[in-house]
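2024-03-11 09:14:02 INFO queue: dequeued item DUF47 family protein, len=206
2024-03-11 09:14:02 INFO validating residues
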Amino acid sequence: MRFRLTPRETSFYDMFAASADNIVTGSKLLMELLGADTPARAEIAERMRAAEHAGDDATHAIFHQLNSSFITPFDREDIYTLASSLDDIMDFMEEAVDLVVLYNVEELPKGVEQQIEVLARAAELTAEAMPNLRTMDNLTEYWIEVNRLENQADQIHRKLLAHLFNGKYDAIEVLKLKQIVDVLEEAADAFEHVANTVETIAVKES
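2024-03-11 09:14:37 INFO prediction written
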């Protein structure tokens, strides 16, 4: 890591960790959604909205700190990108839950549980990785594994699309379910964006 003579604002590390912990909360709510009946799904959606608002607050706090800090722990554009990408994950997960409730989906197609399991694992890895930004240690395995998970998510998504278009569902139901699985895929992509940003930061700081 590069030697610095100037002090750095260290609260960013805690804020990134808090944002990632909130994403773990969101991923657990997605897992709850799988086995929930219709009334329970509405309650889960309310909790997910609260988690998404907490994520927005965490992101705004990072931006505020960024705008008021003279010295930052790493490049400002990377701080902005990392905060925005973490926020995107939460937004996509909340959108998926909201769509399930709004569309009154009775049964999610087989394979969605695999999508959500991948997201839950990526959330855990991301939460474990954020505190390591302080030292830039033990991050390589994190971004390699998240990229592997994103590739796995791509494969699951393609199989889901094939299943949706196999003639079992009517056209309207296909449109509803496709939008949900597409949003879950976007969440997986957002996890990869976070991992790629962390890799960029680590390379710059090495």
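2024-03-11 09:14:37 INFO annotate: Helices lie at 11-34, 38-68, 76-102, 112-129, 140-164, 171-205.
2024-03-11 09:14:38 INFO item closed
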